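Action item from last meeting closed. Structure (87 res):
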């Protein structure tokens, strides 16, 4: 408002204000200039690399599970052998 009480715009802009940020006490409003340029990164083969990594992890889990099962079977065979040998 001006001194006479009539409303006046504080700022006249022709572009959009996309980022507004209130102050911690809520009394002020901050806005930045519009961005005229951006920055983007291109990752080549991103989905393929991620998929291959997941496949390798899945394969490793399967191998560890097979090894665990194999070792459990070997331990069971050893226990049975020892029990048969002692009785």
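Sequence:
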């Amino acid at each position: 408002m001006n001194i006479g009480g009539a409303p006046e715009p504080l700022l006249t802009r022709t572009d959009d204000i996309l980022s507004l940020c209130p102050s911690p006490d809520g009394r002020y409003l901050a806005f930045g200039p519009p961005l005229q340029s951006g920055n983007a990164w291109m990752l080549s083969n991103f989905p393929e690399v991620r998929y291959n990594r997941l496949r390798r992890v899945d394969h490793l889990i399967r191998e560890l599970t097979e090894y665990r099962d194999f070792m459990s079977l070997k331990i069971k065979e050893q226990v049975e052998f020892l029990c048969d040998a002692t009785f």
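Note appended to the action item: The two ends are 103 Å apart (CA to CA).
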